Structure formats: structure tokens, C-alpha cells
Amino acid sequence: MDSNALKAFLAIVDQGSFSEAAEQLHLTQPAISKRLAALENQLDTTLVDRSHRQIRLTESGTRLLPHARKILDEIHNARIALSPDSGLIEGELQIIASHHIGLHHLPNWLRRFKREYPQVSINLQFLESDAAYAQMRKRNAELAFVTLSDSMAPSFNVLAHWPDPMAFVVSADHPLASLKKPGLPDLAEHPALLPDTSTSTYRVVSRLFLEANLSLHSQMPTNYLETLKMMTSVGLGWSVLPLRMVDRSLKVLEGVSASGTEPEHRVTRMLGAIGLTDRQAGNAAKALLSIVQEEEERPV
């Protein structure tokens, strides 16, 4: 099976159109159609139903899809295995980063990486973590830096990880700011500014309130932590944000517990780098991962 034909098939499926697939592979639309037709002729079956506006896989196309990804993964792994063992680090590295990691972690990594490995060209996308997982499944990046999930599929491999301590915060003039040791019942009386319900941060905070039999009044959810920080800083509610983001515009609520007298609740999420289990990381990816691990082990 021709690998270029398989790439064309996957690009059509992932992009949902022949024209966008052609653009992704830097081909003309007739050229990508020709590659798909050649693959269908070789397999003696129709893979894509062209009778509708939207791209639809036939039953044969659906069966081929996981095998096509696996075949290209093995070709990728073979190239890495057969490359000269010289430690040469060059070429293009495609990575994805969540917006928070991109703002508060990535600059230090990339500054050092570009200094030490100037021959590597970095292709960077900023996406929310859920979208990053989806793009990784499509092989649109070699690494993704995201908030790690307990429900992560086994097709993903955690290649680096570090804790991201968080804190309950309010603005300096918020009513909660004057309390010496607020409890969850105090917070329950005020609006909460939190990420979407699908995020690990929301689930952790929601569980605390559920176990205390308290209502959580979450308003205006957004996954952009900088937006949550701004809304919190102007007094629209309390939030839970990474300690790395806390500045003079926010006040940390110390000792937040179930009642105000019990041990403090500490909220931490895990950030990390993920790759695909069946797809080996190249030299450039390994070099970046080494820098990430070293930088994240340094005291903040």
C-alpha cells in the first residue's frame, strides 16, 4: 500500500473535505482525488462516499481507518529506528499547548530550546486540552502539553508531568477577603467563576461542595483562565486559579475548609506532555521533553 495514498485518505477523513486535505498536504485537489482513487483501485473497494456534500466513509473506509493510522505510525517508527544514531536534532517539530501552558510555561522552554537547538523549526498550535487530544488522535502534532485527565484513553502516553498547585482567590475588596479562615459555606453564598463542567478543575471543586452538601453557584464558565482571573479581580466572584497566576490583583483565601475549622482543602491539578502510545518520539521531541522536565522541577 502506498503511504502517500494512505496519507491522502486520512487527510480527507480528518479535514472533512478534498480541498482542505489538498491544502494540508500542499497538493492540488485533482492530485489528492487521484491518490484516493488509486488506493480504492488497489483495494478494489470504495472508501469514501462522494454522493453527499459532507465526506462520509463507506463501511470499507471505516474498517481501513484504524489500520491506515497504524501503518503510517509504523513507517514513522521505522524511519526513527533507521535514522543515523548521531544525536542530530533538526527538522520540524509540531506541538500543541493549552492556552495556560502557552502563557505561563512555554516561553521558558522555547527560549532555551531555540538557543540549544537552532536547527529545529517549531510548528505550534494553541488549543484547549480537549481539542488537543482530538488533534493528537489525527496525528496533527507529535506532542501536546495539556491538563492531564484521569479518563485519558490508553492510546495516549504521558511523557512528562508536573503538579500545578491552585488556590481559592478573590479580589481585595470582595466580602470573602475580610474573613480570616473562610469555609465552604461562606463561599457557597457567593458566585463562583470556574472553568467548564468538563474540566478537571471544576470536577475537583464540585466534589468538595457535593461532599459538604453545599450548592455551587457557578457563573459565566470559560476555559480561559486569564478571563477568569480578570472577572475575579474586579469582584464578580471567587475562583480557583493556579498559584503561578496570582498577583496583586487577587487575594488568596487561606485555609479554606469544609466548615472553616477543619484542615485546609488543597486543590492541585496535573499538567503534562502527551504523545501517542504507538508512535515513537523523534530526537527533537525528546530534547524538548528533557528541557520541560528540568524547567518544571525548578522552584517557582
Explain this structure.
This protein has 300 residues and is α/β, with parallel strands linked by helices. The chain contains eleven helices and ten strands. Strand 1 (48-49) and strand 2 (56-57) form a beta hairpin. Helix 1 (3-15) crosses helix 3, helix 1 crosses helix 4 and helix 6 (106-116) packs across helix 11 (283-296). The longest helix is centred in the N-terminal third of the chain and has 24 residues, at 59-82.
Beta-strand percentage?
A: 15-25%
Helix content: 40-55%
Largest sheet features: 8 strands, mixed
Gyration radius over CA: 24 Å
Total beta strand runs: 10
Could you list the spans in which at least 5 consecutive residues all have pLDDT below 50?
A: none
Features:
alpha/beta, 300 residues, 10 strands, elongated, two-stranded antiparallel sheet, 11 helices, 8-stranded mixed sheet
Quick overview:
By secondary structure, the chain is of the alpha/beta class.
Write the layout of secondary structure elements.
Elements: H1 3-15, H2 18-24, H3 29-43, E1 48-49, E2 56-57, H4 59-82, E3 91-97, H5 99-104, H6 106-116, E4 120-126, H7 129-137, E5 143-147, E6 156-170, H8 184-188, E7 192-193, H9 200-211, H10 225-233, E8 238-242, E9 251-252, E10 267-276, H11 283-296
Parallel strand pairs: 3-4, 3-5, 7-8
Antiparallel strand pairs: 1-2, 5-10, 6-8, 6-9, 6-10
Helix pairs in contact: 1-2, 1-3, 1-4, 2-3, 6-11
